Amino acid sequence: MDNLKIIYSRRFAGDIKFRDMTYGILCRSFFQKYVPADATVLDVAAGYCEFINNIKAKSKIALDLNPDTKKFAASGVKVIISKSTNMARIRSGSIDLVFVSNLFEHLEKEEIVKTIREIRRVLRKDGSLLVLQPNIRYCYRDYWMFFDHITALDDRSLREVLEINGFEIIENKPRFLPYTTKGSLPKSLFMLRLYLKMPFIWPLFGKQAFIYAKKC
Q1: How, if at all, do strands 123-134 and 95-101 pair?
Q2: Number of domains composing the chain
Q3: Splitting the chain (216 residues) into consecutive groups of 10 residues, what average pLDDT does each group show?
Q4: DSSP-derived 3-state class of residue 102
Q5: How far apart are CA 9 and CA 7, in angstroms?
Q6: Helices 155-164 + 109-122 axis angle, to 10
Q7: CATH value at residue 138
Q8: Buried-exposed string 59-89: b where 16+ CB fall within 10 A, e elsewhere
Q9: Domain residue limits at 190
Q10: What was the pLDDT predicted at 11?
Q11: How far is CA 155 from CA 109, 137, 176, in A?
């Protein structure tokens, strides 16, 4: 737990405000179209709550192992401190949409399967899953730049494990966002807005996959 707090703080402390503004744009310009206004949304591995704070929904839950998540959750966001493999505090069939960003690469394969099964359990019958995930096919040179990366995944292996565990893939964008804000591309909110309006350039810079799936 202490190592987790240290890693998060070292990696993101100087970028928290910028990341929050980045997710504000991502939510308004891209993710919001997948989220009904009356939805109950669960952000798994919510981190500093960049997504869950910015998305519009009737009810919002942030789940993370790091207790610091509570400090960053906006008013109205319920925070659960727990592993992604154990969501016992969330009732089965109570969630409309789950969001997972940059989590699975930090887990062993058995933990990935357990997490996906827990996500499926808490989702309603017609629930949805949004996944933002580094795609090792396109970021293999830098995939291991982070010490806590454990499992290599691309959009195809992620699709397979989701389908095996009861999800139907509705959209699969192998190349969506750049890999990390710590890369060579300039940090610019204007450029991000422009980037999202030009999907034809995503194959040039996108190194993270985006998957939209439905519970079968």
Answers
A1: parallel
A2: 1
A3: 56 74 97 97 97 98 95 97 97 98 97 98 97 96 89 98 98 94 65 96 96 97
A4: coil
A5: 5
A6: 50
A7: 3.40.50.150
A8: ebbbbbebeebeebbeeebebbebebbebee
A9: 2-215
A10: 54
A11: 15, 8, 11
pTM for the complete prediction?
0.91
Q: Distance (Å, rounded) from C-alpha 84 to C-alpha 108? A: 12
Q: Is 126 helix (H, G, I), strand (E, B) or coil?
A: strand
pLDDT recorded at residue 139: 94
Q: Residue 95 carries which side chain, given as an amino acid letter? A: I
pLDDT value for 205: 94
SS3 letters for the chain? CHHHHHHHHHHHHHHHHHHHHHHHHHHHHCHHHHCCCCCEEEEECCCCCHHHHHCCCCEEEEEECCCCHHHHCCCCEEEEECCCCCCCCCCCCCEEEEEEECCHHHCCHHHHHHHHHHHHHHEEEEEEEEEEEECHHHHCCCHHHCCCCCCCCCHHHHHHHHHHCCEEEEEEEEEEECCCCCCCCCCCHHHHHHHHCCHHHHHHHCCEEEEEEEEC
**Phi, psi dihedral angles at 198 (to 5 degrees):** -125, 70
